[in-house]
Amino acid sequence: MFGSFIKKSRAKSPWIMHFDCGSCNGCDIEVLACLTPLYDVERFGIINVGNPKHADVLLVTGTVNHRNKKVLKNIYDQMPEPKAVIAIGACGNTGGVFRDAYNVVGGVDKVIPVDVYVPGCPAKPEAIIDGVVVGLGKFAQKVEEAE
Amino acid sequence: MDTLILVIIGLVAGPVIGGLVAGLDRRVTAWFQSRQGPPIMQAFYDVAKLLGKEKMVVNQWQILCAWVYLIAAAVSVALFFAQGDLLVIFFVQAVGAVFLVMGAMSAKSPYSQVGAQRELMQILAYEPVLILVFVGIYLVTGSFSISSVWELEQPLLAKMPLLYLALGYALTIKLRKSPFDFSTSHHGHQELVKGVLTEYSGPYLALVEIAHWYETVLVLGLCALFWSTNVFWMAALLIGTYALEILVDNTMARMTWRWMLKRVWLLGMGMSVVNLIWLYAG
């Protein structure tokens, strides 16, 4: 019974952590817009935490470059399982218009496994919330498979 | 036998009430900000989720410290429900508070270290006030035992109004609410990340959270002693105090530890001492 309550709780309390890999700030302000009274993601139990050790979902915006890929990997490794990664915006998905630049590695999935891709330039808050919900489904599935 | 039943009630009711209070708190805070806010059960979902996460620790000390913090908080609530001695309750909860700081100190992370230093300052600020409140209760009832408070004809509040105000400071500090939330900032993306809680994760963070619920219940229980003669007025006093706490939390900015020490030592302890002199002489 307690196990099923834990399982149910995972989807009800996703703590997100937001990491900016050199985005133009467009996607970042949309992520933060989700926390405003208009979208109020806290009603779904989502909290924006600043600490990878407390986070369940990692939101990554911006193109990954050779300088910050180590940081991204480090943050990902510090998150306890089960966890999900959501790449936000054109840059996070593929590298966007910067994909051919000499310092750019490409999308987030070049460095860490990504569960959900949220498109847009910038991604809309609705799409980001949608992405988090799909991401929760994915990590519930991952936990089931692991057991 | 009765004591054992009371202890079990305390151990079970502590986290249930504490979790509900935390849920209601977030609901009311959301209302202040014209949002809808999470469900009242949210605190339980958070803790259940944390319990199901991978166990990641920086060092073995943290495991011990999280457990001791939880056990000390639970034992102090159990003693409170069992009508125990106020001084014993005080020392047991102080042990818990110190172990939380030790756990934070055991990690090298600067956030955790700074949070631990600030938490020590907070302990330094509220512990003397708590002791003075207990001394006040002793002067009124002639005993440090909680059962003697229930035998009073007249509520404690009538004799110790200033001490109740001082206890309000201790409550705000103990609940880690603004303007005294500088050891564990409310929101995890502020200057200190999460202070003392930064290095705790997964199940151990859940233990710390449950311990915090116990402590909330303990301090609210101390407030309840101030109107022990009438259940209705006791409930009104508790709801009023906690509502004021939420209002203060939402309208105040975070202050520095220097500001806190000045306020709490001068005003809080000043009021306590004036009240104690009045009790002693009057």
UniProtKB/TrEMBL annotation, chain A:
Residues annotated as domain NADH:ubiquinone oxidoreductase-like 20kDa subunit: 24-133
A Pfam family per the record: Oxidored_q6
Record's keyword annotation contains Cytoplasm: no
Protein family membership: Belongs to the complex I 20 kDa subunit family.
Keywords: 4Fe-4S, Iron, Iron-sulfur, Metal-binding, NAD
Entry-linked SUPFAM superfamilies: HydA/Nqo6-like
Record-given protein name: NADH-quinone oxidoreductase subunit B
Provenance organism: Pseudodesulfovibrio alkaliphilus
Molecular function GO labels: 4 iron, 4 sulfur cluster binding; metal ion binding; NADH dehydrogenase (ubiquinone) activity; quinone binding
Cofactor(s) demanded: [4Fe-4S] cluster
UniProtKB/TrEMBL annotation, chain B:
Keywords: Membrane, Transmembrane, Transmembrane helix
Top-level division of the source organism's lineage: Bacteria
TM region positions: 6-24, 61-81, 87-107, 128-150, 264-281
Compartments in which it is found: Membrane
GO cellular component annotations of the record: plasma membrane
InterPro entries linked: ComplexI_Subunit1, NADH_UbQ_OxRdtase_su1/FPO
Mode of membrane association: Multi-pass membrane protein
PANTHER family xrefs: FORMATE HYDROGENLYASE SUBUNIT 4, FORMATE HYDROGENLYASE SUBUNIT 4-RELATED
Protein name per Swiss-Prot or TrEMBL: NADH-quinone oxidoreductase subunit H
